[in-house]
Amino acid sequence: MFTAASSCSIALRSYGSECTADSPAFSQIVLPLAGELSMDIAGRESVLDRTRVAYVEAGSRHDQVSNVVNRSLILDLPRNELDALFDWLSGREVLAER
């Protein structure tokens, strides 16, 4: 069961004009809050903003870069927590609709 005490971490991050690369041992969900962020995840490129989020599978190489001021909420999730998180989310009411 996913609980607030689960071993995920949450961080606010900003990225600059120098490309940074990572291959984390955990999954990540990238939720842009401001600006734009260009990402390449395992060879698939996209520009993220408040209307487009990203999922980075554990162990996948990803690069990120931005030429504008940006801020993203990053959820770091150990592999064993991911299924529990999705199960937990599926039982919740929708908080907002467009």
Structural description of this entry:
The structure is a single chain. The protein is globular, with a radius of gyration of 14 Å. It has 1 helix and 8 strands. Strand 4 (37-41) and strand 5 (44-48) form a beta hairpin. It is mostly beta strands and 98 residues long.
What topology emerges from the helices and strands here?
Blueprint: E1 9-13, E2 20-22, E3 27-34, E4 37-41, E5 44-48, E6 54-56, E7 62-65, E8 71-77, H1 79-90
Antiparallel strand pairs: 1-8, 2-7, 3-6, 3-8, 4-5, 4-7
Structure annotation, total helices? 1
SSE string: EEEEEEEEH
- The percentage of residues in β strands lies in 35-45%
Average residue-wise pLDDT: 82
Number of strands: 8
State the end-to-end CA separation: 29 Å
- Order of strands, main sheet, comes to 1-8-3-6
Low-confidence stretches: none
**SSE class:** mainly beta
Principal-axes shape call: globular
Radius of gyration: 14 Å
Mind summarizing the main beta sheet?
4 strands, antiparallel
Helicity level: 10-25%
Which features characterize this protein?
98 residues, 4-stranded antiparallel beta sheet, globular
